[in-house]
Amino acid sequence: MDSKTDEQTGRMDQGAGAPRAQEAGRTGKRFSAKRKLGAVQRLLRGESLDTVSRDLQVPAHRLSEWRDHVLARAEDVLTDRERDGRDEVCRAVTNPATVAPA
């Protein structure tokens, strides 16, 4: 076996044949929400998942997760509406015990 333990850190050294983090697709960078949104916008504009993944050095499955989260939140935002007098009427009809007597 080509691995050995570093006596100071206790970490295993996998030898010269092991891929480094950057070569394995992990850049170690953290993306801000703004950068993630920019990546998702590129996907929504029609750029291929593979192209954006290679360009940003982010795994395709991670980009897909970001896109799915954005679309789910967008649906929540679009289904939300301002409250008005009809809400009180609906609440009174469905659960009369929650409405204060007039």
From TrEMBL:
Q: What is this protein called?
A: Transposase
* Leader sequence segment: none
Bias (Basic and acidic residues) occurs at 1-10
- UniProt organism field: Gluconacetobacter sacchari DSM 12717
Chain spans, region Disordered:
1-35
